[in-house]
Every structure is written in structure tokens, then in C-alpha cells.
Amino acid sequence: MTLRVEAISTGYDQVQVLYDLSLEARPGEVLCLLGRNGAGKTTTLKAIMGLLPLQSGTIRLDGQIISTLPPHEVPRQGIAYVPQGRRLFKELTVAENIDVGLMTRGKSAATRERILTMFPRLRERLSQRAETLSGGEQQMLATARALCLEPSVLLLDEPTEGLQPSMIALITDTVRAMRDEGKAVILVEQRIETVLSLADRVAFIENGHSREVVETQTLRDDPSLLNKYVGI
């Protein structure tokens, strides 16, 4: 399914963050959002999930307007979100966190088994409370919980932040697998090497405005845009 964000404006209370921002995430691709801190990347993901009311603009999934839905209905449309900071139910066990994901769209034990096959370390820790997991394991669980929705669109906010290389490799392999299954993936990621290895296209956001969208190969050939929009 194609997700289209069409000229949205939103913010927090009296502080406007996004100004007529537009982007498109296509099936079978990873779209990375890049910009300086405070540019509006996380706000964009929150707006897609209905966590911030729009002042103007529209968000569509395969042509259907979803920006008028209450936040709890957005995941049921097949959009999964792994927020920065993971936002697990830390007092619940690994198994219970996974069950929450399964219940969101009424998925079965077969989905649970498929997810645990993807993340075998979680299978070993099903009875542990989420708060006792390492940072990498918590990121794994947050990603697994999101994938329990069997989403058509996956949003990830800084999924490799603070992780050791082996965990980064696992998360990036998972993102590639989702893309190869035909999912549309929107990724907020500040590790440039990860962006260049994962993204199909890169959308630059500056001060709440959507700027240039380029193929990743273009960025490899001419990294001047990184300096312009990210300061690298």
C-alpha cells in the first residue's frame, strides 16, 4: 500500500512544527527522513499515527483518508510504529507485549510463531519482564510487537540509536526483509552509513518543511546534500 502525506501542518499546543509537509512511501521501498535535530522528523511520524491533530492537509493510505481516524484506529489500518524510546509495557513480560501487538489486528498464533522465528532471542525470554531486557533486546521487542500487526506500512524512529553493532545488523536485516516483502518503510535514522545501506530514497526535512527527495545513489555520488540539510 502507498502512504501519501499531503501538505500537512501540525505541532504541539501553540508551537507549529510542520508546514505543508508532503511525502510518499511506496510498497517495497525504504524512505528515510533526514534532517537536523528539531527538523520535524518524529513529528511527521506522530502525525501519520494520528497522535497529533492536523491543522491542515491530508494523509491517505491507498487513496483512503486516514487522517480523520482516532489514533487507536490507525494501527488497525495496517500501519505499525516503533517510536523512539521503544515505549514498551515494561512491567509486562515479553510474551504479553507480543500479545498486545497480536490483539491490535486480531492476528493468530501463526503470526506469533513467525515473529519469534525472526527474533529467536525473544523466544528465550518470553517470561521475562520487558524492563529486564538489554537495550538491544528491548528494541527487538518493540520491533517484534509492531510486526505482529502484519503491517503494510512500517514507521521506525531511530531504531539503531545506542545499539551495539550486532543489534544494528539485526534491525537493519529486519528492515530489508520488510521491504523485500513489499512493505512500505519510513525510517528516521541519523547514522548516515545505515541510511546509505538501507534507504531507496531519502527525503530531507528542514525546519518543518519538506525539501528535496533523492534516490540514495544520488546521495552516494554527491554527498553535498548531507552538508546542506544535516550538517555532515
From TrEMBL:
GO terms (BP aspect): L-amino acid transport
Keyword Transcription carried by entry: no
Pfam families: ABC_tran
Signal sequence bounds: none
UniProt KW Chaperone keyword: no
PANTHER family referenced in this protein's UniProt entry, alphabetically: HIGH-AFFINITY BRANCHED-CHAIN AMINO ACID TRANSPORT ATP-BINDING PROTEIN LIVF
Family statement drawn from the similarity comment of this UniProt entry: Belongs to the ABC transporter superfamily.
Designated name of the protein: ABC transporter ATP-binding protein
